[in-house]
Amino acid sequence: MNDRKGVIWAYWGHEPMDHLRRMGNNSESIFSLGECAEPWYIRLHSEEMIEKAAKASINTIYTHFFKGFGLEHEKEEMEKTCELTRIAHKYNIKVLGYCQLGSLYYETAIDEIPDLKSMARINQDGGIDTWGGAYYRWSPCFNSKLFKKYMESVIEYGVEHVKLDGFHFDNSYNQACYCENCQQEFRDFLKKSFTNPREVFGITSFKNVRIPPYRQLSEVHDPLYIWWLEYRRQLCAKTHNELFSFVKAVSNDKAEVLHNPAFPRKGRTVNEIAFEPSLSPDKCDFIFAENGNFIQIKDKKLVSQVEAFKLGQKFGYKVFDSSWPLDLNGKHRNPETYEEIMRFICQSMIFGGLCGSQWIARSTKKGDMARIDIPGQLDILSNIFKYFINNLELYDENTKPYNNIKLLYYPLNCMASPEKGFKTFSDVSEKLASEGVPFSLATEEDMLKLNEEQVLILPELKYLTENLYQKVIEIAKKGCKILIIGDFGIYNENVRERDLSRILPELEKEKNIFLVNSKSNIDGEWINILRKLVFENTVIVEPCGMMVETAKDENNKLLIHILNPYNNEPLNDVNIHISGFYIKGKTKNIKLYTPESIECKSYEISYNNVDISLTGLKTMVTIALE
C-alpha cells in the first residue's frame, strides 16, 4: 500500500467527450450532461479550476485517460489530459488517469487491434459478452495475454508521455467467461488442486469438464461450482497483480494504483464479479467503494460505508468512498447540505479512508458551471480538508485500530453462501457501527493470536473447513470468547454436509462459545450478549446511535473517534465511558479535536475507567487520551 500521507482527492471528469457522445441519454441524471457537456469539459481543463482545487487543499484528482476506444483513437483527448497534468503539477496536485478494464469499444478499437475478438469474453451462449448490455462495448477476458499486453502499452504511454502519477482502473472485476482458453485454464487449475478427482467430484479426470453455467445462487451445493468460483477469485487477483505490478515497474514504483471492482455492493457478490478483497495485491494503493451506502439515517436505520473501510483496514488499501445520496425518485443526486458533506468526509477520516469529493467538479448543467462555483460548497470542503491536514497524526496510516471485538471475514463462506453468509457479515458490520461498537475484521490466520480479553464474532458460517472448526475449539479453550450467529459448520469446503451430531455437542460444552440462532440474529439480540461479554472492557457513548472507532497513534496514544450520523442539530449532553482493556491505568489527561466547536463539561480518570461529558457535538470529535 502507498504510504503517501494526507491524500485529498476529487473527481475531475473521468470520461472523455467521445464517451459522453456515444452513450447518449437514456434518462435525465447527474451523469448525463447533454448540451452542457462540452463547455463544462473545456473549463475543467483550465488553470482557473485547478487553482481553485489547490486553494481548497485538494492534492489528487482523477481524470480521463483511456476509456476503451483504443489508444490511437484516444490520443487527441490524451493530449488534453497531458496539459491538465502539467498544470496540476504546477500546483502540486497529482493526477490519476482513468483506465477502463471492463470494456473495449469495438467500433473504433478494432481498427488498431484486428484480433480484438480474441480478447473478448464469451458468454454461456457462445456470443461476445458486453459491458452492462451496451452492444458496442465488448468485455475483455482476463485470461487473454493479448489484452494484458495491450493494457501494458496503454499504461506505459500514460506514464512516459502523459506523465500521469497513477491510474484509476475502472470496472476491474471479472465476470464469467466461457472461451476455450478459460475452459482449459479451469481444467488445469483443477488438476493442480486435486490428485484424485473421484474423491470429491465422482469423476476419474478433468479432461472433459466444462465451466458450469453462472447462476445467482443463494447457496452453492455443487463441488465443481465452488471450485470454479475459487478459480475465478484467483484469476482476478492474478490479473490485478500483473497489471498493478507493471504500473509500479514502469514508473520506478512512483505511480499509484486505484481501482473500482464494484465492491462491496448489494447484489454484487464475489460469485458474480470474482473480486475478493483478501487477495488484493500489495501493489494496490486505493479501492473505490462505489455503492448505495452514502452515510445517512434511512427508515430509522444507519446506512454507512463502514464495511468497506474495515475491509480496507484489514487487507492493506485505502478506500475512496464514491457513494451518492438519492433523491425522492430514487435517482443519484449530489450532496447539498453542510450536514451531508460533513458526515461523508468525517466518516472517511475516522475510519481510515481517503478524504475527498466525487461531486465538487461535476457539472451543474448550466453552461460551463461546476459545483465548485456554488456559493459555500467549496468553503465547507476547504475547512474540513484543512482540519484534516492540520491534524494528520490522528487519522493517517500510522494510526491503527485498537479494540477487543473481531468480526471474522471468511472468503469460502462468502462465496458459498452469498445470500445468508455474506449478507449476514455485512449486516453484522452495519449493526456494530450503528450501536457504536468499535471492531476490526479478523481472518482465519489471525485466530490463534486472539486471547481472553477478546471476542470473535462468527456470522452465519454454514461453510468452513475442518481446520477452521478446530481453531474455533482451540481458541475457546484458551479463553477467547466466541459469539456464533446463525448456522455454523453445516458444510465443508467441498460443500459436503457434516455430521452435526459431532459438532453441536462439542460447541455446547465450551463455556466460552455462545450460540445465537438465526431468528435472534434477525432481531439483533446478539448485540446484548456481546455487550455483556465486554462489559468490563468497553467504550460506551450516550446517546445511543453514535458511531465509534478506537485507534492508537504511532506514540501508542489511545484515540476515540465519535461520529454523529444524526447531525442536524448539536447534541448538548454526550457521555463517554471507557474502561478496562482500553485504559489500564495509563491515562493522565484528555484532549479534544474537532472541525466544529465542542466543550468538555467534565471528565474523571481512575485506574480502570475514564468518564467524559461533552456538550455541543454536531458531527464528529476525536478524544485523545494522554
* Spatial order of the strands forming the largest sheet: 11-8-7-6-3-2-1-12
Q: Termini distance? A: 29 Å
Gyration radius, rounded? 25 Å
Mean pLDDT across all amino acids: 94
Bin the strand percentage: 15-25%
Given helix and strand content, the structural type is alpha/beta
What does this structure look like?
This protein is of the alpha/beta class and 626 residues long. An eight-stranded parallel β-sheet has the order 11-8-7-6-3-2-1-12. Helix 12 packs parallel to helix 13. It is globular, with a radius of gyration of 25 Å.
Question: How do the strands and helices of this protein lay out in sequence?
Answer:
Blueprint: E1 8-11, H1 17-23, H2 37-44, H3 47-55, E2 60-66, H4 71-90, E3 94-100, E4 104-105, H5 106-109, E5 137-138, H6 145-160, E6 166-170, H7 180-193, H8 197-201, H9 223-250, E7 256-260, H10 270-273, E8 286-289, E9 296-298, E10 301-303, H11 306-315, E11 318-321, H12 338-350, E12 355-357, H13 377-390, E13 400-401, E14 405-408, H14 411-416, H15 418-434, E15 440-442, E16 455-463, H16 466-477, E17 481-491, H17 500-508, E18 513-516, H18 518-523, H19 526-533, E19 539-542, E20 547-552, E21 558-563, E22 574-579, E23 590-593, E24 599-605, E25 609-615, E26 620-625
Parallel strand pairs: 1-2, 1-12, 2-3, 3-6, 6-7, 7-8, 8-11, 14-15, 14-16, 16-17, 17-18
Antiparallel strand pairs: 4-5, 9-10, 13-20, 19-22, 20-21, 21-26, 22-25, 23-26, 24-25
Helix pairs in contact: 6-9, 12-13
